[in-house]
Amino acid sequence: ALPVKGDTVSRPPTVHSLHHEHERADGMLRLHCNENPYGPPSGVIASVTKELEGRCSTYPDSEVTALREALAGQVGVGTDMVAVGNGADELVLLITLASAGPGDTVVVTESTFPGYAASAAVAGATVRGVPLHRDRVSATALVEAVDDGARLVFVCNPHNPTGTVLSPAAVEEILRACERTGAVPVFDEAYIEFAGPGFDHALDAVRAGRRLLVLRTFSKAWGLAALRAGYAVGPADLVAGIMEARRPLPFSVNRLAQQAALAALGSPDHIAEVYERTTRERERLCRALTGLGVAYVPSVTNFVMVKTPGNSTRFASRLADEHGILVRDLAPFGYPGHVRVSVGTAEDTDQFCAALGSLLASPR
Ligand code: PMP
């Protein structure tokens, strides 16, 4: 069962079966996984290919040293304050295994990225779901849920699937509540680059020596989802705990992922460019939705939560079957009547809006 609104989740949701369920033949327009249609910076694929040709039979660096050093330099912290994982996914699991077990509570917002609850279930910890307030994460509600039994507080920011972002004051409020009880807040910033510059409050807090973890990924704005690399930044003892939890899988971040991420960091302008293109296209998509009389939640990310005409499960399957477009039905996530649509290229937006218009004209 997936986490739904109002539920306290204690069983693992089937995270990956959801992905498989929506995998279809090539040729479908993929607007269901929040992928970056622009890909990685130029030169990254060539550098990965070269690495593969030259060093295919040698194990990767289990400590991921070069990439951690590069990230640490960029963030402005020590290398011992950065951990790298096989995507942010793996880090969510490792952080949970390192910090929570039976009898402990992991606090999450309801109806969000299912990896937090799935990891808590593997660790044997109890999940406490906190409702959103008008499609936004409520710092007040989160703070109320953080008691002495809470070990971790996963804050998806910007929030998936609503696309909303917390104010600096809300981030501070959550940090203070965790500092009072000893819980570790984990700010999952998988989509933060799409919000533009000026959203570094959580990283600023790490730089100021406070107790939190910040998760980021190369899968989204960097366009490297296939390669699997994500990173966590936080105090050295928490990072050491992650590295310890990773000990059974020392080579989980493969050579190509390490090389790709390192090469990508050499092109920081890529992020500004992806931000600009995504913002422009998201605004165009939202104007078109308004024009079609379709409601949506204003987003700062590369996806938009859209209210569907009628049943969202039927809407998503008609979109796939009749128009070859994949979107994420949010009914199993506690948002019946909504889908999440990734922001693609201009052509993708046009194709989606034409299909939406046609479904609106022929309701079933
Ligand atoms: N956090 C959130 C909020 C996500 O949406 C995703 C992926 N969809 C992840 C983490 C995992 O990203 P990665 O590809 O780095 O494992």
UniProtKB/TrEMBL annotation:
Q: Does the keyword NADP apply?
A: no
Q: Which cofactor does it need?
A: pyridoxal 5'-phosphate
Pathway per the UniProt entry: Amino-acid biosynthesis; L-histidine biosynthesis; L-histidine from 5-phospho-alpha-D-ribose 1-diphosphate: step 7/9
What EC number(s) has UniProt assigned to this enzyme? 2.6.1.9
What domain of life does the native source organism fall in? Bacteria
UniProt domain Aminotransferase class I/classII large: residue ranges? 28-356
Going by the UniProt record, its keywords in alphabetical order are: Amino-acid biosynthesis, Aminotransferase, Histidine biosynthesis, Methyltransferase, Pyridoxal phosphate, Transferase
Q: Which GO terms describe its biological process?
A: L-histidine biosynthetic process; methylation
Catalytic activity as recorded in UniProt:
L-histidinol phosphate + 2-oxoglutarate = 3-(imidazol-4-yl)-2-oxopropyl phosphate + L-glutamate
Which stretches of sequence are listed as region Disordered?
A: 1-19
Molecular function in Gene Ontology: histidinol-phosphate transaminase activity; methyltransferase activity; pyridoxal phosphate binding
Kinase recorded as keyword: no
Query: What family is it from?
Result: Belongs to the class-II pyridoxal-phosphate-dependent aminotransferase family. Histidinol-phosphate aminotransferase subfamily.
Outline the subunit composition.
Homodimer.
Provide the protein name: histidinol-phosphate transaminase
Q: Which residues of the full protein are shown?
A: 3 to 366 of 715
